[in-house]
Amino acid sequence: MAGDERLGLGEYLRRHRSEMTPRDRAGSSALSHRRVPGLRRQEIADVAGISVDYYIRLEQGRASRPSREILTALARAFRLSSAERDHLFRLAGERPPQPRAPAAEIRPGLQLLLDSLNHTMPVTIHDGRLDVLALNAAAAELVGPVFGGGPYGYNIVHQVFTSTGLREVLGNEGAEQLARAAASELRKALSLYPEDERLRSLFRELVASSPEFISHWDRGEIGTWRSAMKRFNHPTRGPLDFDSEMLHDPESDHWVMLFTPRRA
């Protein structure tokens, strides 16, 4: 780790330590009052499970490159958010740890966005495993028939290659476009979450049951289609055209898909 990187790491640690208060220390009672802001170096070292001498050298930019285990311990001691933890790793010259799974719950702000657009446009939210977590009333009316029961009932990739109602909703061209995107998205998801048994099981099932999936998978594509024009066959209003746009919440690995109606 170069000298300027060590200094950057040390400054980052000092700033976070100065912003902490005794009550931030997990499992401890209030400590003695003192004029210097933040926690003592000894207190942070104790929580992280490292020697105070080594921690002091980290803050002063004199320590060797810290291991990933030490960085993880420091992130836990400082109670860093995922973004703050990732920055800590980068300052130390390490790649940030890969998340084990997307967040299970939608942020309240995203849920509010979803609900507030009920009568404006269809909106769906799915996670990095391609599981639909929520859809507003307009989206349920538009794409609800696509989803079914079973363990993968709300997984986009599974429904793309197994749903009998997909082509009725999207037409042949739209269904083919979505199938291509779905296979590439699953490849990305498996790369991001290689130990996720749900994704691995889904992949095995599609390989065993869907020649169409195998055909798209063998193309080797990976990526995200952020923008697209989609035509839906609405159950009561007939063909409707939408411009779709995908927005990403990286902290949770949630994707918001907005369908803006096209003007006639």
Automatic annotation (TrEMBL):
Stretches for region Disordered: 13-34
Pfam families: HTH_31 (PF13560), MLTR_LBD (PF17765)
Top-level lineage group: Bacteria
CDD domains (UniProt xref): HTH_XRE
Domain HTH cro/C1-type as annotated: residue spans: 38-85
GO molecular function, one term: DNA binding
Official protein name in the record: Transcriptional regulator
